[in-house]
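Interim report, section 4.2 (structural modelling).
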Amino acid sequence: MKNDSVITLVTGGNRGMGLAIAKSLATSGQKVIIGSRNLDNGLAAVEKLNSEGLKLDAIQLDVTDSTSVTAAAHTLAKKYGYLTTLINNAGSVFDFGMEPSQISQELLRKDFEVNYFGLIDVTQKMMPLLKKAPQAKIINISSMMGSKTEALNPQSEVYRAVAVGYQSAKAAANMFTVQLAKEMSRNNLPITVNAIDPGMVATEFGGATPEQAREMGAKPITVGIKRTIALATDFENKDNATFTNINGPVAW
Ligand SMILES: NC(=O)c1ccc[n+]([C@@H]2O[C@H](COP(=O)([O-])OP(=O)(O)OC[C@H]3O[C@@H](n4cnc5c(N)ncnc54)[C@H](OP(=O)(O)O)[C@@H]3O)[C@@H](O)[C@H]2O)c1
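Predicted structure of the assembly:
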């Protein structure tokens, strides 16, 4: 496929890594749609990028609101007819630093609504559009925080991190990645499904400022999106059911 026939949807594309991914892929010639739960924020992001000479689109998309997801899929079907790449980037953490013995059901469910159920709802509702492209890919922005191997490794950068709701939701999204990838292969569909660990990145994730995140060792956004951009611009589209970061495979 040529880059200019690629149509990419980035959820949570109005800021942070999602915005940087959208900008980078639009710069490479892809048609990029920013999904934003607050449409005004999505439109403001698009307006700024358009003023820099890029041409992106924005769509209202709250991944936790099934009506919003259905409407977005409908609009994209009417406007574009197909989707080549779905980047499930929208994510949130609600329980950072909380002890597993104390964490409330309410916060656990919030973590799962965005990072697991929302991701699956978007994926299922965009599937008819992905099936219409000659080849397609789904990239799930996961986290090393979802790796049980890393959580048990004292040398790991995530060894001391505790957010059991967020971590479990990302681990669950990793299993969804594997099972969906296997389903696509079983049915000989040209759709790949992979998970990405961006590393610790200086965004507003978790309520910190990018400066605070940098002081804690977070990497620049340009580094955090590198692996995603490599996958999103790989037209061989051979990688399937992988969990990787810029250093290679990440333990599940
Ligand atoms: N930053 C890190 O260190 C790090 C490390 C590992 C993995 N990640 C993952 O990377 C992804 C991007 O994170 P980031 O660092 O760029 O965070 P961020 O700057 O906080 O951006 C998060 C994005 O997700 C959107 N979002 C949250 N809930 C949503 C919902 N219900 N529906 C639609 N969009 C929603 C936000 O929209 P609003 O503007 O409306 O809030 C925002 O656009 C997330 O999946 C995160 O788990 C981040």
